[in-house]
Amino acid sequence: MLGLVATIALFILIVWLGYLASTARKTGKEIREVLKPHIIMYGLSCVSGVCAFAFFLSMDIYKPFKIMVSIVLGLILIFIASLTQRREKQPNRLDEKG
Fold this sequence. Notes:
The chain has about 100 residues and is mostly helical. The chain is built from five helices and no strands. Helix 1 (about 1-25) packs antiparallel against helix 3.
């Protein structure tokens, strides 16, 4: 089951990146303007999250415990993502002092 989920998730990622590249050519933009590293990492993060979620749900433990842990893990991942995004948007204090 986990292999099937991983295969489908990777296929969706490849199709999504191909779609972004094809729409970039139609609009006259360069591919590197559309496929920035953070977009590719976002796609890879989604694929790894789906695989981790499928692996976690395939384990043989009590169902409410699975739901509670998956909600907590989701909250932790959202917090980490917002924290790193906030750090990237803040100006570097060393650059201001010169």
